[in-house]
Structure formats: structure tokens, C-alpha cells
Amino acid sequence: MKLAVLKETEAGETRVAIVPKSIAKLKSLGFEITIEKNAGEQAAFTDADYVSAGATVASSAKEAIESSEVVVKINPPSAEDLATLKSGQIWMSQLFHRLNEPLIKELESKGVKGLSLDAMPRISRAQSMDILSSQSNLSGYKAVICGADNLGKIFPMLTTAAGTITPAKVLIFGVGVAGLQAIATAKRLGARVEATDVRPECKEQTESLGAKFITVEGEGVTVEGGYAKEVSAEYLEKQKAAVNKSLAQADLVITTALVQGAKSPILISQEQIEMMKNGSVIVDMAVAKGGNTALSKADKTVIHNGVKIVGVSNFPAQIPTNASELLSRNIDTFLVHMVEEGKFKWDMEDEITSGTLVTAQV
Hints:
single chain, alpha/beta, Rossmann fold, 7-stranded mixed β-sheet, 12 helices
């Protein structure tokens, strides 16, 4: 089988889906690999690196797609990619199928099988294939570093001849993969950390990292696909009341809350932002799906009432080398699962296969 790796075309995207280290594993599965020219350049992987690993280089995305049976990318296909795809090919990338019905229908109408990397089920045996977890881990780290860069004070306590600097106070909304890494990073930097989540079971995980968990009284929250389901407006009001004291004292607030297949919930209102200290910072990690604050804007910094609200839609693209390495490991492990004796096995009884194949063709 021939597999093509395309260069990312979305604005601000610097990652690449497959790194040279994965080429040997893919070849052992029976793939011949073609990489689009300069696909790994922004992640510090040269065409020469890929050639040395055993891949060939195509001069354009069109050439790479036309010569391959399997096409791999991080983000959904561009209009040009779709125009080039033909019946019988397999497309593998994030497809965000719940929010992208027209794209899925177009892939189906062309006879292209679509494997959506973001639809990987949140089960233990799929963890090594889960790109959302690997990238969220990096995002949680980078969000804290971004917050530190935007904050006018340091994180740790510092005792000097001129006096003592008290540690920064950090508040984190959402204790998933990104939130846990944000807690760990902020603690390593010496901050005092508090966190809140609609899932009560997150209390133990938060405290195991040395942070304080803010408990919200109310209904139990169910989880679907590794994400908390949408909660009632009444519950969100209770959460606001529970965190308001911490929010008013926080130097840095990081929000991470996502709902699968839906807009991000508003966790911090304009009124709450106006309660915060002058000079404090909010880093909104959910801004690509609408944001967790009432004033967040994608890839912009908004200053309101002395509070800086930083919206970053793609943190992993700011650490492209490590992000690409983890992505590539996720994808090559997924292909090991999907391929047997040089062919895709399409076992629809398997939860991983049925969960990620989001088009009707089998």
C-alpha cells in the first residue's frame, strides 16, 4: 500500500502528522511512504530526514494524493485535497464529524473512507492512539508557560534582602488531561494552585498533585467519550458561586472545558471578570470551540477592566517538534491496529475501528 503524508495548510499550523522516526514502523506494515515537500519543515524535520528514513518526496499535495491509497494529515482536507481524492482511497485526519456533516457527506459521495483521529474512543487500549490526549497534555503545559509570560509577577515564593515575594495563585477550570498537566506545571513552578471540575471524581486526582479542589454541590455529572456532558444552567450558577472567592484572588486562571460535538460552555461571565484583580490573566484553552469566558476571542488577547484574556486556539502548534512526535506515535500505533498482512482489516466489531470510521463505506 502507498501512504501519503501531507503538509498542513491551516493558518498557524506547524505540526506534521508523521515524523521520520515512524517511517520504519510503517514500512514494516507494508506501506510505501510519500511525504509532501517541506511537510515537516516547521517542526524541524527536513525532507532529507524523511528520505534517509526510507520515504520519497512529492512536489505537491496533488501529486502525493494521486499516487497513494492512504492519505494522512492532522487537520481536515482542504478544498484542493477533496478535489483530488478519488473513490477507494482512505483519508485519515481529524474530521470533527459531529460538527462537519457536509464534509463527511462529500467524502462518502466520493467513495472515500474517512478515519477521524479525533473520534478515537476513550478506552484504555486506545490510549496510545489518542491524539486528543497527547496534544492536550502538551497544551496544559504550554498554557501555564503562556500565562507566566503574560503575568507581571513570578510564580514561586522568593525571599530576598529587599523582602519576600509571595507565590502566585493559579485557578484551573477543568481537570481533564490538559487541566492535570496545567496543575502539575504550575505546581512545579511554585504557584499555589486550585482547580474545579463538574466531575466530583476529579477531586482525588487534583489533590494527588498537591492542589486544592473546589467542590461544587449538586447533581452528578455523566461523562460521554471522555468528556463531561453539558450540565444545567442551575449547576453552572452553583459552580460560579463556589469559585468566585478564588477567582477574585487569582493571579492566573486557565480554562480547559470542552463538550464533545458542542460549543464550549461559558464558565466565566463578564461580571466575574470584572471581579478579578487588576493585572490578572486568563488563558482560555477552549477558545477554538467558542471559549470558556464571555469575552474570549480566538488567537487574540483582550484586556477588560485590567484583566488580560488570552485566547490560543492551537497550543500544540507552538511546540511543533514534540507535538508532531507524539502525534506520529499515535497514528503509527493506530495503523498497526488497523492493518494486517498488508491490508486494512475493517473489523466493525472492534470499538476502535467502528468509532473512528465516520463515513458509511466499509
